[in-house]
Amino acid sequence: MLEKLHGKWNPGKKPPYPAMYSSVFGGIILDPAMMVIPMDDHMVHRGHGVFDTAIILDGYLYELDVHLDRFLRSASKARISSPFPRATLRSILIQLTVASKCKKGTLRYWLTAGPGDFLLSPAGCPTSAFYAVVIDEDFSQCKEGVKVITSSIPMKTPLFATSKNVNYLPNVLSKMEAEDNGAFASIWIDDEGYIAEGPNVNVAFITHDKELISPFFDKILSGCTARRLLELAPKLVEQGRLKSVRTANLTVEEAKGAAEMMYVGSTLPILPIITWDEKPIGDGTVGELTMALSDLLWEDMVAGPEPQ
């Protein structure tokens, strides 16, 4: 079994997952072949788990605390109690990142109802579980625009959309549908006809009046990067480049009529959108203000102000 597991990884290449933590094992694992979780974990066979991320850039963790707070809010909605207090979770994640020696990548972590049995109720799972993985990956500012489509896959109801749980089948199908149509990803529209979000990213718009508008977060995931963007964007208002920054409901017609459009997410941090359902957004090129916002976020990630 071990030979088979080790055979999955090319011994001459740098492992893509340099370190993992498992509360089941009670420690940090450096061998990728041993980075496994029990089959009877309630997350595996029932989807009863939540997760979140943090960026590793220049050897620093960016926005760990806001992601960790959202992580615990998601766990509360999923009725999963943490096996450790928040301070211990935070300490484990920092120690894991140190052990990984990864200077650039992502840190992903999960809370689950834990292993126990294969029943629907988690009553047979004696304790919840905490897992985390460091993923060594390169990323940089996205400067090329992408195409998107309107998703025909039903989006999650607010209860599930507003927590970062592992039930991502709608998200996967939505992404696959976009790829089948030659697009990068898709856009969800809620049941009232307002713009919601992308399959694993938020979306934002710049109007012809130079207003930055992001959809309300009441029916979608409250993106940490999207919220940080709303905190940083007023700098462009002070410079006279933007008129205002706000959250609002946007109809499909209003959104498609925007001057600029973008995805907003942790590793992007901003991805310009230039075509939607085969029609150009604005003049069909990457917008100047979109890139200015991207610069703001990227500089914030590199500079790492104390609260972040």
Outline the structure in words:
The protein is an alpha+beta fold. The mean pLDDT is 96. Strand 13 (270-276) and strand 14 (279-280) form a beta hairpin. The protein is globular and about 60 Å long. Helices cover 30% and strands 23% of the residues.
Helices and strands in order:
Layout: H1 2-7, E1 19-22, E2 27-29, H2 42-46, E3 49-57, E4 60-62, H3 64-77, H4 86-100, E5 105-112, E6 129-136, E7 146-150, H5 158-161, H6 169-180, E8 185-187, E9 202-206, E10 211-214, H7 224-232, H8 234-238, E11 244-247, H9 252-256, E12 260-264, E13 270-276, E14 279-280, H10 288-303
Parallel strand pairs: 7-8, 7-13, 10-11
Antiparallel strand pairs: 1-2, 1-6, 3-4, 3-5, 5-6, 9-10, 9-12, 12-13, 13-14
Shape: globular
Overall mean pLDDT: 96
Give the helix proportion (percent range): 25-40%
Portion in strands: 15-25%
Order of helices and strands: HEEHEEHHEEEHHEEEHHEHEEEH
Pathway: Cofactor biosynthesis; tetrahydrofolate biosynthesis; 4-aminobenzoate from chorismate: step 2/2
Protein name: aminodeoxychorismate lyase
Cofactor: pyridoxal 5'-phosphate
Keywords: Folate biosynthesis, Lyase, Pyridoxal phosphate
Write a brief caption for the model:
The protein is of the alpha+beta class and 308 residues long.
